[in-house]
Amino acid sequence: MTSALKAYAVRLLPQAAALAVILVMVSLAFPGFFRLEMQNGRLYGSLVDILNRGAPVALLAIGMTVVIATKGIDLSVGAVMAICGAVAAACITSGHGLATTLLITLATGILCGLWNGILVAVLDIQPIIATLVLMVAGRGIAQLVTEGAILTFNDPGLIFIGSGALLGLPMPVVIWLAFGIAVALLVRRTALGMLIEALGVNRRAATLSGVSTGVLLIAAYMLSGLCAAIAGIIAAADIRGADANNAGLWLELDAILAVVVGGTSLLGGRFSIAASLIGALIIQSINTGILLSGFPPEFNLIIKAAIIVMILIIQSPRAQSAFAFLSRPRAEDGKTEQEAK
Amino acid sequence: MNQRYLPLAATIAIFLIAYAVCIAQYPNMLSTRVMGNLLTDNAFLGIAAVGMTFVILSGGIDLSIGAVIAFTGVFLAVLLQSTAIHPLAAFVLALVITTAFGALMGAIIHHLEMPPFIVTLAGMFLARGMAFVLTIDSIPIRHPFYATLKSLYYTLPGGGRITLIGGLMLLVFAAGILVAHRTRFGANVYALGGGAATAQLMGVPTGRTTILIYALSGFLAGLSGIVFSLYTSAGYSLATVGVELDAIAAVVIGGTLLTGGSGFVAGTLVGILIQGLIQTYITFDGSLSSWWTKILIGALLFAFILLQKGLIQFTGRRRRHA
Predict the structure, then answer these.
(1) Which class is domain A40-320?
(2) What pLDDT sits at residue B64?
(3) Which chain B residue shows the shortest CA-CA distance from A143?
(4) Does domain B3-321 match CATH 1.20.950?
């Protein structure tokens, strides 16, 4: 058990170190960065803010990790967020209770995932195109639900999900932490994680060895849809309205980045949900840090691009093999195939 | 008929049928004016989509083009506003920058063996960020040379106009078709898309080809940026967000396989025209909301993917029987 724990710590080390470096850099530019305050039984501070603002990307990253581990990709999550936010707002304003609204919304997300999953697993379409369909059409569907307007609501229950607090932490933080731990336990305490990795490395081999790859693939996309639904509810509850045009816009890219920064290969196989969550926090720390440290916001994207390129170059197969000369050889890096192109 | 041409034929058939349906409902749509506008309004998208076609044919993807178009527009606007440089010199400068930018992304993709998706995503952030750094305002371009360029057009019988930018798009498509099918570089692109390892064994210079492909895409995105600045007479760093998706959709609707190695540049033109037609129809109708464009394009994408899937399975089965 301790050796397993140690292996886990080694796996997370690069991401945790990168996060620490970024946090220290921000705190140098903005002295009050690490200060936490308790007010009305709730924590306040820049760190809590990062956890809170990072909630949608962190949630999307959970589902995205599993999908990418199957050698897939889900481009539709941003659009699914918009659809689910719209559905939640439409349900609650038309007089349904909170429980019904949440159920319908989560079911909508799962349904979107089912659609993607069937395209990928049954019709055998390349994931990047299969999910592109919903990415393009999704925002149109969301606008159809909201009829082009921003649907606002003032149901206290739904708003609580976006801005309430539980155990001193903002509700979105509690949700993504709990959901992340639940999914991580589900895949690592059962054989599920291993089966997903087998499917990602070689689908045909996994099928031949008796893994029901079709069901597993569809389940992965459904999980991603569910994550997008939760993220969509949080995003809508946060602004007390559903904005079909802007909710979750470009978050699919942030989520994919979070997974890649977290060290999960886009070629499928080995994955770590915890590392992806740290990746999501890295991205949010960069965003928040640039704002706090007083750089003009125009530089935001350039700095983000530079940091990401640096992290990616360090992780690239070429750099890895260069490192291999310096450190002891690692058995897990078998991914220098030509497919990388 | 050759199996290869089936997706292209299907795309053209769908365009003709859709156009016929439109004309049946709104007879006014059968005019050279509508045709001319279709070309002018989609010129920047079409030019960028030619570059995207080459990238996708090689099995890659380029997410940066929307940001590069915006950057070019802002770059031109700022340059023309703050210096006395002639627009033509500014055009050359912009094209050099965007081509070098594309080549750099290609070099990173090849030499660091990183997935094009992630590299061009970082490129998208970088290009959009550079545009923000130049200015966050929308800057008008009031150079007399722009007015001259905009006044150039060829009048078709029936009053339609092929404007400079519409004509330029057609020229770029013609050049793209020639390069894809009549040059060694074009053959290399198809080979690379068919399988990188195979291409290398056949003696295709994969590194040079990859860099050239992304440089070409950068060049055409820059050209598209120039066209867009002519079209809008302004530079704005938040313009053309998501154009890369429209371009990818046009390429797929045009019958090119996203896995690479199979497709036609000409198909992309038809893909662009189909997207433009949907928008024109919605404008003519007046009561349909703009979101139907997105849903229809999504549905079309789906239909074409299914069609290609069916074709591949059909031909695969036939080959096995033969």
Answers:
(1) mainly alpha
(2) 92
(3) B291
(4) no
